[in-house]
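task queued by scheduler; priority normal; single chain, no ligands, no partner chains; default sampling; output format set to structure tokens
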Amino acid sequence: MISYVIRNGALLNDPMKGCAGMGKVDMRTSRIHPMEALYERLASLFGRRGVTSYLAYELGVYYYALLSWGKRSFERDHAKSYTAHKESGWLTMVLFIIKLLILEGILVHFFVAKWSSVFAWIMSICNVYMMIWLISDYRAMKLNPIGVSAQGVWIRLGNQLRTSLLFEQIESVEVVNNVELSGEEENNSFIPIGLSTNVHIRLKEATRVGIMLGANRTVTDIYLTLDEPRAFVEECRTRLESTQL
């Protein structure tokens, strides 16, 4: 089904239709983003509901883990691209976690199987899914660099974050290092899993963004880990200044 959608899908806006800022930014390209086409295909079958976003998310996980090999990165026309997978150390962490899941998963499976073979297999299946998710997250991060155009910022950070922001929605963009947030600040922020962030995007008002499992979350701050944080911040500031003229 995914292959059919990628071949036959039409060019559409970001799939998370319910999120403020998404679908507003004119960041179209002659290339069809596979996940956008997938969402629209599912929406035509099930409507624009939470189950559609969830199905699109889960199918996307398997697409990036199993079918994305050999695909070129998706870059928006008329936008500068900034990667997030080269210097972050996420690949090293992914490989380390997968190694632990394999080694510990085997031991735990045989240990738990002494009491319940069913529960042991459930745990093993969960471990396999986690490995698939980790591979998919890295692949999605690699194939979807963040785009900065004259209108705004297009972000698809692995399986963790999906949003499009107009510069009119952004208050500031800055380079950060080893940021420590309070509990309330964390609740109002998106922070990537397991990474030390180096870019902070502060929004003018609370905005819904797409997160894991196809869900939405309202945030006022977005933290990212980019390979060229200063170049990204300078480009965004230049664009922000031009919108204020």
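post-processing summary
- The CA atoms of residues 83 and 186 lie 24 Å apart.
- The first helix runs from residue 2 to 8.
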